[in-house]
Write a structure and sequence with these properties.
Layout (H helix, E strand, L loop, with lengths): L1 H24 L5 E5 L5 H8 L4 E5 L2 H9 L5 E4 L4 H6 L6 E6 L4 H19 L6 E6 L12 H25 L2 H5 L6 H26 L7 H25 L3 H21 L4 H7 L3 H14 L8 H23 L4
Parallel strand pairs: 1-2, 1-3, 4-5
Antiparallel strand pairs: 3-4
Length: 329
C-alpha cells in the first residue's frame, strides 16, 4: 500500500514535466483573420512577424463568420490606404477588429501583438487605436475571463470531498457495520455524493456572486454547473471505492487535478495540449461556462458540452454500480 502511494507521489512531478515539455515543443500561434483587398507594408509585417497564423479574406462578412464560428478570436480589417495613414503618415488613425468575446485572453494577446507589429513596422510609437467590435453581444467582460477556471476548481472540490469521505469511512470500518442495518451501501454512497454536489454548487454560487458571474444565459450556466458537480462527485465515488487508503486517495486526486487543470491552461498555446484538453471533462466545463457567461449561449449552443458531461457521468455511474455490486468498498 505504501509503495503504491510512493509511486503515485513520484509520478506527480513526472507528469508535470511531461505536460510542460509537450507544450513547449508544440507552440501554437494564435490565428488572426485579415481582411485586405490589396497588399501593404502592414500586411507584410503581420505575415513576417511570426506572431500569428494568418487567414485572408476579401470582405468583412466572411471574416466575421470565421470569428463567429470560433476559428479565430480576432479579425483585423485593413483599409486600402493603411500604409499612408498609419506608417507613412502621422501615425494616427484607427483599425477595426472583430473579436470573439468568449475568448478574452486570446483577444488580449493578439491585439497586443498587432500593436507591436504596428510599432516595429513604422519605427515609432503609433497613436493608432484598435477599435474592437464584438461578433456576439454578451454580458460578460474581461474582468471575468478567469472566472470559468475558478469555477472549475470549485467543481473539482467534489472529487476530493467525496473520495476522502468514503476512504475515511472505509478506514474506520464504519461502512462494513452498515451492512447489518436496513441502510444499504448504495444509500450511504449516494448520500455522500449528493453532499459533495451540494457543497460544490454552493461554493460555485459564492464565486459567481462575488465576481459578477450571475449573468449571461443562466439556464445554460445552471445545467453545466450541475452536470460538472455530478461528474466530479461520481469520479470521487469511484476513487473512494478503489483507493486503499487516505494517502493513496489524496495522491490520486492530486494527479487528476494536474491532468484536468494543466492542459486547459496550456491549450491556448499548444496544439498537443489542445488535443489532450478536448478529451477531458474539465475542458467542456470551462468552455461551456465561458460561452454561457460571455456570449449568453443558449442551451443548444452548448449542446456538445452537455452531451459529453452526460456521457462521462453515465460511464462513471455504471462503473460505480459495478464496484458496489462487488462491495469493493
Amino acid at each position: 500500500m505504501q509503495s503504491k502511494t510512493m509511486l503515485i507521489t513520484i509520478m506527480i512531478p513526472v507528469l508535470f514535466s511531461i505536460l510542460f515539455t509537450a507544450a513547449l515543443k508544440d507552440v501554437r500561434l494564435p490565428r488572426l483573420a485579415v481582411v485586405a483587398k490589396e497588399k501593404s507594408q502592414l500586411l507584410d509585417a503581420l505575415s513576417r512577424s511570426q506572431l500569428f497564423t494568418l487567414s485572408y479574406f476579401d470582405g468583412e462578412p466572411e471574416a466575421a463568420d470565421f470569428v463567429r464560428s470560433g476559428k479565430a478570436p480576432v479579425a483585423i480589417i485593413l483599409p486600402d490606404n493603411i500604409d499612408a495613414v498609419l506608417i507613412d503618415g502621422s501615425g494616427t488613425g484607427s483599425l477595426s477588429c472583430l473579436v470573439d468575446p468568449s475568448a478574452p485572453r486570446q483577444v488580449a494577446v493578439i491585439t497586443a501583438g498587432i500593436r507591436e507589429v504596428l510599432r516595429v513596422a513604422s519605427g515609432q510609437n503609433l497613436r493608432a487605436k484598435l477599435e474592437e467590435k464584438k461578433v456576439f453581444e454578451g454580458k460578460g467582460g474581461r474582468g471575468q475571463e478567469f472566472l470559468p477556471t475558478w469555477i472549475l476548481l470549485s467543481l473539482m472540490g467534489a472529487l476530493m470531498i467525496v473520495a476522502s469521505s468514503l476512504v475515511e469511512e472505509k478506514e474506520k470500518k464504519t461502512l462494513q457495520a452498515v451492512l447489518v442495518t436496513p441502510i444499504s451501501l448504495e444509500h450511504i454512497v449516494l448520500g455522500k455524493g449528493i453532499l459533495g454536489i451540494i457543497i460544490t454548487l454552493g461554493s460555485c454560487l459564492i464565486v459567481l456572486a462575488l465576481n459578477g458571474g450571475l449573468a449571461g444565459n443562466l439556464l445554460s450556466l445552471a445545467i453545466l454547473l450541475v452536470l460538472g458537480a455530478v461528474s466530479f462527485s461520481l469520479l470521487g465515488i469511484v476513487i473512494g471505492q478503489l483507493a486503499p487508503s487516505q494517502s493513496a486517495a489524496n495522491s490520486i486526486n492530486a494527479v487528476l487535478y494536474i491532468l484536468f487543470f494543466l492542459p486547459i491552461v496550456l491549450s491556448e498555446s499548444s496544439r498537443t495540449m489542445d488535443i489532450l484538453a478536448r478529451g477531458l471533462p474539465s475542458y467542456y466545463v470551462v468552455d461551456g461556462i465561458t460561452k454561457a457567461i460571455m456570449i449568453c449561449a443558449p442551451v443548444e449552443r452548448v449542446g456538445v458540452n452537455i452531451a459529453y458531461l452526460l456521457a462521462f457521468s453515465a460511464g462513471l455511474f455504471t462503473m460505480s454500480r459495478k464496484l458496489l455490486a462487488h462491495q469493493n468498498i
